[in-house]
Design goal:
disordered N terminus, single chain, Neuraminidase, five-stranded mixed beta sheet, 345 residues, 2 helices, four-stranded antiparallel beta sheet, mainly beta, 25 strands
């Protein structure tokens, strides 16, 4: 298992270099012919590209990380130590704040209507491994404290109000039950990052994005460094983990989201691309470059008005921090899709 894990990291490192060279030379990000009958986010074929257009720009130095929506069509975006709300009319305001030096990452709306976020800190002197809740505009309240050695990232609710939180630093999936009890749901080599070849350069990152399938038999996780999508069985006496998809085009994977047809949208932060993974585990790149500056998270429209749209945050992470050359373009983007998104619990 250890040898396979190390080999995966080497393959990912080589693929990131190849992707950068291909983008610089103007080559197509995906020249593989479409499989017959595959459903795609962009339409009838998985090979159809997504065309993104700008919806909201962010200020210099800002890193929009995660995005979610409520039933009214409000979008919530984590930016630094705050969560901003964008109404369907396009009005943007600050919805919630976290303490200074603590950064809001994944965001989701609970059944109680409150906005939940996982947080981390980039300052070793400041503990930041928490989960927060904001039920109205103002300071968020702390819901749970996790291992301070880690960096909680994305989160997702199941139908029983259990909250699952990824930790890419520790290679761990946390579970916070409806009563607030916290436990490690699953961890291990498949969830870990790769210290020898971190996809985002600044530190190793394992399990990152998270999404439940339609019947919640499984929760799916992206592994940033290993370029995999994991499938974790959530029912039964103990969770089991398996690799659902592994592909060099997934190296640097971040946030994920399902459409109603069972196709998984994957934001590939490290290669400025958005990919899809079919129900059979086939990977296809749907868009790359252009406005997609380190895409980190996605959510499908939740209302009748925008159900055929998908929103993506271009975090501009690596360019903002000087890890990659170029001028950062942090933005909220939108693209039209044929199949609506799977409703969030």
């Amino acid at each position: 298992m250890k040898k396979l894990w190390l080999l995966s990291g080497v393959v990912c490192a080589l693929s990131l270099l190849a992707a950068a060279q291909a983008t610089a030379s103007g080559e197509s990000p995906d020249d593989t012919p479409a499989g017959a009958g595959e459903a795609g986010l962009g339409g009838g074929s998985a090979a159809q590209r997504l065309v993104f257009r700008p919806l909201l720009a962010f200020g210099e130095g800002e890193i929009p990380e995660s995005i979610t929506s409520d039933e009214q069509g409000n979008l919530y975006i984590s930016v630094g130590s705050a969560i901003r709300r964008r109404t369907p009319a396009g009005v943007v305001s600050e919805f919630a704040t976290l303490p200074a030096s603590i950064f809001a990452l994944g965001v989701k709306v609970g059944r109680d209507g409150c906005v939940y976020t996982a947080s981390t800190s980039l300052d070793p002197a400041v503990e930041g491994a928490f989960v927060w809740r904001a039920c109205q505009p103002g300071p968020a309240e702390q819901v749970a404290a996790l291992d301070p050695a880690g960096g909680p990232n994305d989160l997702a609710f199941d139908a029983d109000d259990n909250l699952f939180v990824t930790d890419p630093v520790l290679g761990r999936l946390w579970k916070i039950d409806a009563e607030g009890g916290t436990s490690v749901f699953v961890e291990g080599p498949l969830l870990a990052g790769d210290p020898a070849a971190p996809a985002l350069l600044f530190r190793p990152l394992g399990v990152n994005g998270i999404a439940f399938d339609g019947n919640e038999r499984f929760v799916y996780l992206s592994n940033t460094d290993q370029g995999t999508i994991l499938r974790v069985r959530t029912r039964g006496p103990s969770p089991s983990v398996a690799v659902f998809a592994e592909d060099v085009r997934l190296c640097g994977a971040d946030g994920i989201a399902f459409d109603r047809g069972g196709t998984l949208l994957v934001n590939v932060n490290a290669t400025d691309s958005v990919a899809s993974v079919s129900r059979a585990g086939h990977v296809r790149v749907l868009a790359q470059g252009g406005l997609l500056d380190a895409p980190s998270s996605a959510v499908f429209g939740a209302t009748r008005r925008d159900r055929h749209q998908v929103y993506v945050t271009a975090s501009a992470f690596s360019r903002t921090l000087g890890l990659q050359p170029g001028t950062p373009q942090p933005a909220l983007l939108v693209a039209d899709v044929h199949t609506p998104g799977l409703p969030l619990p």
